[in-house]
């Protein structure tokens, strides 16, 4: 191997002013300091959930990534464990990049990408294994690369292995780029999770008549749900399509069937998983109770200037979600354990709002809001605001069924995201607000909007403004 350098950056230590930092989330997972991105190795094992994550503990920027590690019994209270992987071997010295976890011979294993950039700028990507070597699954020993190189016809943008087992064999999907710069998803198979056979590309640009589908596919995840095989992930370089895919980097899913014998995946169209501004690199796991759970990065690549860097941290992970597929569509709900976090309840029930009236509740920035509205006669707006100034608004127009997340008043990347709902004159919202994170579940999981917003104080007003009349079945807030 040619000359390889280790990144030397100054270590951050404890977060500055974490106790007074009004932007730091209380019930979303974030790193104590530095930059966090993709969830990795999400798995339930030995009586607890393990959620690893891409972490640069040395700076609030992307760099030589570690795998941070956290564990939880309830998917909401996470305990930080010692780092699982450090970029300290020749084959991963510029980053232990994203990947997944699995259990082999009763031992927790990690499958990740070793990232190396040589001094002439060449990238080398290998797919590597590590395994837990202590009873509490906190110490990991690296076993080295098991897929040494990308296949012929592909570049070294070859990463993010997601592993599963099927009929006694191991499979994995890996995000890849062809030498013509087309983003594709590659399928591999193995008998022992160490020796892997390349089966071919199964989805992406120029596969299955798909075209214009970008230059790289990151973080693929393929899993069985209901009667379908779902492939989620992040194609980079796709064009906006109506209201969809308007971010710099996007996320979404195919619903289809994987034919294991022919290594082909037939699927429908690619749809967004989340309609908000910041959502990327989602990863799922199958829980022992049968649920398919998802975690994602509330951030996107190339957007790393946020006010929190003044306090030495940036980004967070989403709430864990439960997935179901109905009529060819993905539904997402917050993991049901969230109800345990509910504190004091306040709000209104069964009231009729006449033309141009409004109702409000005062709030701190840490709450869940349930809103059920019927007979909506014209557009209404739900606003979250500091004294006078609204920094995020949700608008719903019953004539077009279009919901708009309006961040134009926010100092951070002002803009709007829209999507079309099925609901007409009825709407149900479940909004989680956590200091500087908003996650909005619309119509019992039909759509979700996830975004960052950066209020200037710690106190706000939640106001519902109607144009013409509507009936509010509930407008209830739980403090968290
Ligand atoms: C997605 C991604 C992955 C890569 C990791 C590096 O956000 O770019 O493809 O493994 O982040 O941190």
Automatic annotation (TrEMBL):
Reactions listed under catalytic activity: Hydrolysis of terminal non-reducing beta-D-fructofuranoside residues in beta-D-fructofuranosides
Domain of life assignment: Bacteria
Enzyme nomenclature, EC number: 3.2.1.26
All residue ranges annotated as the Glycosyl hydrolase family 32 C-terminal domain in the record: 340-465
Span of domain Glycosyl hydrolase family 32 N-terminal: 28-334
Record localization: Cytoplasm
Keyword Signal: no
Pathway: Glycan biosynthesis; sucrose metabolism
Keywords: Carbohydrate metabolism, Cytoplasm, Glycosidase, Hydrolase
GO molecular function: beta-fructofuranosidase activity
GO terms for biological process, alphabetical: sucrose metabolic process
Top EC category: hydrolase
Pfam families: Glyco_hydro_32C, Glyco_hydro_32N
Cellular component annotations (GO), alphabetically ordered: cytoplasm
Entry similarity comment: Belongs to the glycosyl hydrolase 32 family.
Function: Enables the bacterium to metabolize sucrose as a sole carbon source.
Protein name per the record: Sucrose-6-phosphate hydrolase
